Amino acid sequence: MIAEQFEQVFGTRPDGVWRAPGRVNLIGEHTDYNDGLVLPIALSQQIVVAAAARPDGRLRFSSTQGRDVIEADLAALEPGSVSDWAAYPAGAAWILRESGYDVGGANLLIDSDLPTGAGLSSSAALLCASALALLELRGIEVAPDEVARLVQKAENIYVGAPVGLMDQMASMCCTEGHALFFDIQAMSIAQIPFDPAAAGLQLLVIDVKAPHRHVDGEYAARRKSCEAAAAQLGVPSLRAISPEGLDDALARLDDEVDRRRVRHVVTEIARVEQAVEAMRAGRLRDVGALFTASHVSMRDDFEITVPELDVAVDAALAAGALGARMTGGGFGGCIIALVEAAAADTTLAAIEKAFADHGFTAPAPLPATPSPGASRLT
C-alpha cells in the first residue's frame, strides 16, 4: 500500500520500505541519562518509511497523513534548518553525514500507526527508520546499536530534545518475545524473556490522551536537577549512588527538590534489577508490585505524572491489577498495567468509568506484543 502511495507522491516506485517500532518501557524511567538501567519492549506499532535514492543531493519528505512535500538540501543541513516532524528524518540524514557516512539525496514517505504524544517513542522510531533507509539506499551497513547512538545524537542536537539512549536502542535492538535489559553505563544489552500470556497474564497499555512533549522545560529541568545533584555529590552520574548509600547521599544535598529526584533515580535503578531477577526466575507476577512502587516514586519524588495518569493507575489497582505505572517521559502519555488475563476487560472498563467520572477524554487501549526491532520490509 505505501509503495502505491509513494508513487502517487513522487512519481516513481520506492527502492525499498523500512520499519522501526515504538516502544513501551516496562520499568526504569528517567534512569537512562543517569547511566542507569532500563527494561523496554518494542511494540508491533511502528513507523514505516518508503524511500528512493535521488542523484541530486536533495531530500524530499512527505507523510501519508498529509501530502505536503518538504524539501531540503542535503549539503546545507544544520540544526534548525528543518522543523516540525520533518526535522526527524532530516536530523537522521544530518547525523549520518556528520559521522562520515556517504548518504545521498532521497525521497521519503512516512507512514505510522503509532499514536503521537502517547509516550511510545514515535520520534525515535522515525529517526531509526529514516536512518536505516538512508544507509541501505547506499548499501552502507551499520550495526543496530551504532544506529541507535547516532540517531540519539540527532534527537539531542538537531531536534533539540535532551533524551537518553533507551528509546533508540529499544527501536533498533529489541527482539520478539523479550524485554531489552539495557545497562547504559556498561553499554551492554541482554534479552529477557517476557511472555505474559504464558503466565496467564496480560500487559495492558492505555493511552490516557494527555499528550506530552519532550522538547520542553520540564524534561530538561529533571535532567539538569539530576546532573546538578551528581556534581554536588562528586560522582560522574547518579548510577554511582547505591541503595545502601542513598541516605548518606541525600543528607549531603542542599536542595530538597534534588533530594527527591535522586531518590527516584536510585530506587528506580534498583527496581529494574529486581524486575529482571523476577522475570528470569519465572516470577512475573512479582513485577506488578515493582510497577506500582515505580509509579508512586514518579508521582511523589520525580513529579512527572498528571491527573489522567494517576486516575488510570488508581483505577487499575482498584480493579485488581497486580501493578500499574505511568510509562515514558511523563506529563501525559500512557500507563501500563499487569493484570490477570481474565480480568483485562474489567480492568479496562474500570479505567474508562473513572475517566468518565472525572470528565477526562476517553482513554485508548493499545496492543502490547513484545516485537522485533527495526528492519527492512521490502
Q: Order of strands in the sheet with the most strands? A: 5-4-6-3-1-13
The CATH architecture assignment of the largest domain turns out to be: 2-Layer Sandwich
Helix content: 25-40%
* Helical stretch tally: 11
Q: Let me know the largest β-sheet.
A: 6 strands, mixed
Topology at a glance:
Blueprint: H1 2-10, E1 16-25, E2 37-38, E3 40-53, E4 58-63, E5 66-73, H2 87-98, E6 106-112, H3 122-137, H4 144-159, H5 166-173, E7 178-183, E8 188-193, E9 201-207, H6 217-233, H7 246-252, H8 256-280, H9 287-300, H10 307-318, E10 323-327, E11 334-340, H11 344-358, E12 364-366, E13 375-376
Helix pairs in contact: 2-3, 2-4, 3-4, 3-5, 4-5, 6-8, 7-8, 8-9, 10-11
EC number: 2.7.1.6
InterPro entries: Galactokinase, Galactokinase_CS, GalKase_N, GHMP_kinase_C_dom, GHMP_kinase_C_sf, GHMP_kinase_N_dom, GHMP_knse_ATP-bd_CS, Mevalonate/galactokinase
Domain Galactokinase N-terminal: 4-52
Description:
It is an enzyme of class 2 (transferase). GO terms for molecular function: galactokinase activity. Its EC number is 2.7.1.6. It holds the Pfam family GalKase_gal_bdg. Belongs to the GHMP kinase family. GalK subfamily. The chain is α+β, with helices and mostly antiparallel strands and 378 residues long. It folds into 2 domains: 194 residues, Ribosomal Protein S5, domain 2 (2-Layer Sandwich); 173 residues, 2-Layer Sandwich (Alpha-Beta Plaits). A 6-stranded mixed β-sheet has the order 5-4-6-3-1-13, with helices on both faces. Strands 10-11-9-12 form a 4-stranded antiparallel β-sheet. The longest helix has 25 residues. It starts with a helix and ends with a strand. The model has no long low-confidence stretch (mean pLDDT 95).
